[in-house]
Design goal:
By secondary structure, this protein is an all-beta fold. It has no helices and eleven strands.
Length: 121
Amino acid sequence: QVQLVESGGGLVESGGSLRLSCAASGSIVSIYKMGWYRQAPGKQRELVADIGLGERTNYGDFVKGRFAISRDNAKKTVTLQMNVLKPEDTAVYYCHGEIYVSVYGPPVDAWGQGTQVTVSS
């Protein structure tokens, strides 16, 4: 019912920047929250950042002011601007959404397929 498609991953040198984008499509009534998680090899998936209604944002502790998340409600997109990237930021980044597909009931969880971010030292 809902698809999330990510773009913008890739290879960057330490200290560089990348911008990740995610577009939602399908049977969407409205979007409660969208965000990004990441998972490095051998580690658990962790929250990078999310943005809810009223532009309320939440960041993982490791972000420390380096990343900025934004959303465009009309386009149903979320963007993550990542600056001052470090080798430890290397991971697969997943777009996540809590999306209403009906006027009744709670929002559903949706995940993108993931995009690789690699930061070289």
